[in-house]
Design a protein that fits this description.
Blueprint (H helix, E strand, L loop, with lengths): L7 H52 L4 H13 L7 E6 L4 E6 L16 E7 L5 E8 L2 H7 L3 H41 L13 H14 L1 H53 L5 H33 L7 E4 H15 L6 E5 L5 E4 L1 H18 L4 E9 L3 E8 L21 H6 L6 H11 L4 E5 L5 E8 L13
Parallel strand pairs: 6-8
Antiparallel strand pairs: 1-2, 1-4, 3-4, 5-7, 8-9, 9-11, 10-11
Helix pairs in contact: 1-2, 1-4, 4-5, 6-7, 7-11, 8-9, 9-11
Length: 475
Amino acid sequence: MGSKKINYQWRLFVPFVALLWFTIAAMVAIQYDREKAYRSNIATQQLEFINNRIVFAYEHGGKIAPFMEFVKEYFEQSVYDEVRVSVYNTDTHQLIYAIGEPIKYNKTDSDKRPNFFYSEKHSRDNSLVVYTAMPYSISLTEALAPDSTMWLIILVFAIVVSIMAFIFTFYLSKNVKLLHKFAKQAATETSLDANYRFPKDELGEVSQQIVDLFNSKAKAVEDSEHEHKIALDAIKEKSRIKRELTNNINHEIKTPVGIIKGYIDTIAEDVEMPASTRQHFIAKIQEQITRLCNLLNDISMITRLSEASNAIPTEDINFHDLVYTIADDAKESGLLNEMSFSFNIPLNCHVNGNSALLSSAILNLIKNAVSYSKGTAIRLEKIHEDDYLYTFRFYDNGTGVGEEHIPYLFDRFYRIDAGRSRKVGGTGLGLPIVKNTIRTLGGKITVRNRIQGGLEYNFTLPRAKGYHLDDDDIA
């Protein structure tokens, strides 16, 4: 017949309480020794105080006798009533004063034994020596012993903790029993009662979570399939966007290629074409080739910004000088047509960027304003700065765009008026290049219609390290 298994609660409770009582006993022993040493030290300090006061009075010409009487009266009704004090002249070995039984000179008697507290003090000139001693009397032993209240507190604490340990192990074993029952049920059934409830504690919460996980297994499979479908939809959407972008690129490329082919075919078929007409067709071909080159350059630029932004080098750039050069080039090249371009950038405005990319971005903003704004003036200015960024504003005084177009102005190949855009030769990638350039360099850009008319772009660029503006730096 097999031995009966010990209840799980007792297997927890007995070792736990044994360890607890052992720990308490060790702590009590340590505290007892410390308390005893502390109280003994107090008794020794009392003797040393008497010695020090007597020697002090002697060295400063005071009278020793009155202090000896004070000591005798002070300790007479205390636990130190058996204190013995002897004052000797070291030259003659003569006893000068004594309280209680005299202590022999040179401590050759029993006053040096361990059952006495003992202290001695010599004057500085070594002409006087004070001996003090105090036996371990019953009253002194009781005074030096730790307070009995401490033992009572420790006992009560140990009992309370033992009771708490019993309650703790009871509830813990109860949870274990319920968990064991649950394990058996889970092993034989495909689902569990959703109302299966465990006690409101940590182990009960863990057990309840296991039940919930078990019951949600089928739902988890369903959710996984749903997430898989979402992932597939996301892949399809990404593929659709990529396909749409490819189609847009193909369409934008086919248009100038088709026009070029048409003009070339016409010239090739009509050998007697007048020279003026032929020259007109060649000029149109050159115009479309330029447009095609611009489109390919823009596609290359935006691809580089999207896929290799980390490889783009940056450096310290004086933004005032960069804008000044752009303004001069735009004016000399006739890019501005009938519009004017002005700027207000601090002379010492240094940004961390890429000169070619920034020049391309600002030129794209200028070209966009010249082509579509129907305004007369363009302006770029700094409007704010902090320890890390400059904020700039680029705007025109034109007609702006419909509010429904604002969210899409930075989309690739987005055209407000496709016919007008192609007429003025735009690629549909100018503003996306601007946005990607600013983001690649660590800034942000937004666009809105101005109340006064026209479009306004606000963008930020990171400051070059070590440059801070002064009032004298404003242009």
